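Hi there,

I know you've been waiting on this one. I reran it after we fixed the sequence typo, so this is the corrected version. Both the input and the resulting structure follow.
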Amino acid sequence: MPLSDTLRTSHFRTAAYFLAVFALSSAALLGYVYWQTSFYLAHEVDRSLHANVQRWSQLPPEALLREVSGRLRRDPSLREPAVLIGGGGERVAGAFELVGPVPRYDAPFDAEQYDAHGNKVPVRALASVLGSGLVLVIGRDVHDLDEFDERIRTAMVGGIFIVLGVGLAGAFALGARARRRLDDMAHSLQSIVEGHLGARLPVRNSRDDLDRIAALVNAMLDEIERLMGEVKGVTDDVAHDLRTPLTRMLAGLDRAQAGTLSREELSALVDDTADDARLLLRMFKGLLRISEIENSARRENFETLDLTVIAGDAVELFEPAAQELGVALRFVGCAMPVILRGDPDLLFDAFANLIDNAIKFAPPGTDVTVQVAQEAGQIQAMVTDAGPGIPEEERGAVLRRFYRSEKSRHTPGHGLGLSLVAAIARLHGMALTIGDAQPGCRITLTLPPATPT
């Protein structure tokens, strides 16, 4: 994998951006801690110098000489040097060899002194003119403080580099991982482009952004594959269902063109040809309506409705037709209103198609039951008959346009009813399932509970 590809990934760039922000924030925080620590230590040294000067300035001259002289005996390494200087600049007591003159009095200053080995070492000093005319100079070797400051600075710089190193390594790992996933997705997409519509983008169940995108793309591919499957199946089904009426129409036109028909025969031929033309027109109207529904062009007609009322109206419409066929059409409603958002006309058409299919295939003397129920927020509408049923291997195919099983080839219809119902169900977010009523068929429309927003 090229390094440049990894560096261009959004994961690497995002991680690098936050790493830069974190590094700058850490540097600012560590700098503040360093400044406060150094300020505190320097302040403590100055406070100690002022306290010693104030205490020693109150001593009698003899006691002061003893104190300054004793300081050298107690501290031969000159960690805390002190010296008394006379009016002529001569040393009266103590040992404190400053490098250079005293820059100011009664205020601490930074200087250098010669230690016991003659080396220059940094010192913080305070000089004060006493009432006797002597000058008291005391100091504090700050070499250890300087070393402490240097260690803090080194630790700060090292810490920043460690953070940057670990952060960049993590960012590179994230970028490489994202690049591998993108390569896997690109490979799958290339396979799909080459015609393998069954391929899908890999999903790792990490629920990150790429997983969400992959899930959405896979859902889109499922829908495309379904539509492509319908298109492939529709070609054969259309050829099968349109061939018969078109052949009859062409044969009739040939007979009419031959001029051998009587007036009555010609009139009957025109009527038959018109019936075939109307059949074709109904089929194409059905196709256009399904396409309109699948394109969600009718969602603007959604309103709040009671599904029990819609189903009851459809049952009432088909009761006379069911009685003529010797089928008992029963309706089992819900005690409470079943409220949902939908298109009342389309839902009525869905029930009408399901009931029409059920009473067409139900044997005389049997029941067709339409039921609407609601439980735990889930809405179900079921149409059950006692007909021949739908074989399990054909339950997906019957939702395809123009598909007709061999059992229904001689039953009036053109194979668009269940396709229309499936399109209406998808528009309303319903799941359509085909089951076995033993005997017969049970078609169920299920609307899951609304997801809280």
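Quick highlight: DSSP finds nine helices and twelve strands in the chain.

Best,
R. S.
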